[in-house]
Automatic annotation (TrEMBL), chain A:
GO cellular component, one term: outer membrane-bounded periplasmic space
Enzyme kind, highest EC tier: hydrolase
Protein name, as recorded: N-acetylmuramoyl-L-alanine amidase
Top-level lineage group: Bacteria
GO molecular function: N-acetylmuramoyl-L-alanine amidase activity
Source organism of this protein record: Tunturiibacter lichenicola
InterPro entries referenced in this protein's UniProt entry, alphabetically: MurNAc-LAA_cat, N-acetylmuramoyl_amidase_3
Signal peptide annotation: 1-27
UniProtKB/TrEMBL annotation, chain B:
Domain GerMN: 84-196
Organism of derivation: Tunturiibacter lichenicola
Region (Disordered): 117-139
InterPro entries: GerMN
Lineage top rank: taxon: Bacteria
Pfam families given in the database record: Germane (PF10646)
Protein name per the record: GerMN domain-containing protein
Length: 237, 223
């Protein structure tokens, strides 16, 4: 025969547990980690496009990525970058994709720059989206690994494009076949910075610090907005 | 007094010089005749009259990243490979005009275009080498566009500008030669990673209508 105090204590603990159960059910789910993969393209012997006599693309992508990284960190994102210096032997595009795919980021941003065009080009991979009719899960080819993430990548490109438009920056959403974009398994876009060439005023080169800061700020805002939409109930994951 | 043996030596050498001069003059005359024969413009085969036809060029514009089909009328050879090569040379020459919306440097761009028959691509026939096909009625051909290194070296570098060139080539080939289902690229006969650092040249591009007019971002996310 058990002691009445022990019985009371057992009942009390059961009541307490039962009363706590709804509370634990109502506790919000922990916010998924918000890692952003940042890839300043080119580097080392691969200098990329020649933007001016003394400015190769690899230097501009690194400078812009450093700027964007600081803003993203301030906005609460953790950032995984493929380089923060100009290494003599840079990662290949396949290695960059491997780094991204292993870190399972929320979004992947590949940074490029060009001397052609106007404003900011947001490029999504043009690999075809997955076929929903198939019940089986076939192996994903490396060359089209981005395929499963195409709907999310298009939504990400749209969110970043809206943020850039709200910052009064011209933006073009296009699709292209590009490494490592085609090999990433996360929602991914390439940001290509082109000179600002308005019809009614002087052009702004891609090396302009204010121009870069404006773009970086808009991208950080767009990523925050996109992530917020992703966390909404019923949002496509 | 000059010794006798020195006079003999002098006249022997002088005679040798005369002989060599005569030999060289004869050789020059023969070489000249050979070169003149190569430049003979006497017609051998009867000329064939090729009528002009309407051809759709898929023209790129850097300003809005669009590809727009434009119909032009000009003469093209009937042989599919020659037709494809002439078409692409005409397309890329259009981009070197001053009013081009997708400016590229002038100069020869395409070295060759090969059309591969579908059966030669099947892995179950390893002993059959890939043979270029000249039969335009054969469906599902793969076009191999062999670009010149000078064209690739001088192409503007950038994701969008390179993608537009590739899409322009693919769309134009698709419109003129519907039997083509895929397009691959070589540079000076070798596989090449990218066009000018960005656009992937190692993959096979599906030959489809590449008309593009990028839409601006919308408040309702596009899926």
């Amino acid at each position: 025969m058990t002691h009445p105090c022990k019985q009371f204590a057992a009942r009390l603990s059961l009541v307490l547990l039962a009363s706590l159960a709804p509370l634990t059910a109502q506790t919000p789910q922990p916010i998924p980690r918000t890692t952003i993969f940042l890839d300043p393209a080119h580097g080392g012997s691969d200098s990329g496009a020649r933007l001016s006599d003394s400015l190769p693309e690899k230097s501009l992508t690194l400078a812009f990525a450093t700027r964007l990284r600081a803003l993203l960190s301030t906005s609460g994102f953790s950032v995984v970058a493929t380089r923060d210096t100009d290494p003599s032997v840079p990662f290949s595009t396949d290695q960059r994709a491997e780094i991204a795919n292993h870190s399972h980021p929320t979004a992947c941003i590949v940074v490029h720059a060009t001397a052609s065009g106007n404003g900011v080009h947001i490029i999504t991979s043009d690999v075809p989206p997955p076929n929903d009719d198939t019940d089986t899960r076939p192996p994903i080819p490396w060359d089209t690994a981005q395929s499963a993430s195409i709907p999310q990548s298009l939504a990400l490109a749209n969110a970043l494009g809206l943020a850039l438009l709200h910052s009064h920056l011209p933006v073009l959403l296009t699709r292209a076949s590009l490494r490592p974009l085609d090999n990433l398994t996360c929602p991914a876009v390439a940001i290509e910075i082109a000179p600002l060439t308005p019809a009614d005023s002087d052009s702004t080169p891609v090396s302009d610090a204010n121009y870069q800061q404006q773009i970086a700020q808009a991208i950080a805002t767009g990523l925050t907005s996109w992530r917020r939409n992703q966390l909404l109930p019923g949002a496509a994951r | 007094m000059i010794p006798r043996y020195q006079r003999i030596l002098f006249w022997s050498l002088f005679g040798g010089i005369l002989l060599m001069s005569a030999f060289l003059l004869r050789g020059c005359e023969q070489a000249h005749k050979r070169l003149a024969a190569l430049n003979n413009a006497t017609p051998i085969a009867a000329p064939t009259a090729t009528s002009t036809e309407d051809i759709t060029l898929y023209l790129a514009s850097d300003a809005d990243a669009s590809i727009t089909p434009t119909t032009e009328s000009f003469a093209l050879p009937q042989a599919p490979t020659l037709r494809a090569r002439t078409l692409l040379e005409h397309l890329l020459a259009t981009y070197s005009l001053p009013a081009s919306k997708h400016p590229l440097q002038s100069g020869p761009a395409v070295d060759d275009v090969f059309l591969l028959a579908p059966e030669s691509n099947k892995p179950d026939k390893p002993n059959q080498p890939n043979k270029p096909s000249s039969d335009s009625s054969q469906p599902n051909q793969l076009a191999i566009v062999n670009l010149r290194g000078s064209f690739v070296d001088n192409h503007p570098s950038g994701i969008q500008v390179e993608a537009l060139t590739v899409q322009s080539i693919v769309g134009t080939l698709h419109a003129a030669l519907p039997q083509i289902t895929g397009v691959r690229f070589l540079v000076d006969g070798q596989p090449h990673d990218t066009l000018a650092g960005h656009a992937d040249l190692l993959r096979t591009y599906p030959a489809v209508d590449t008309t593009t007019h990028p839409a601006p971002p919308t408040e309702t996310p596009q899926q």
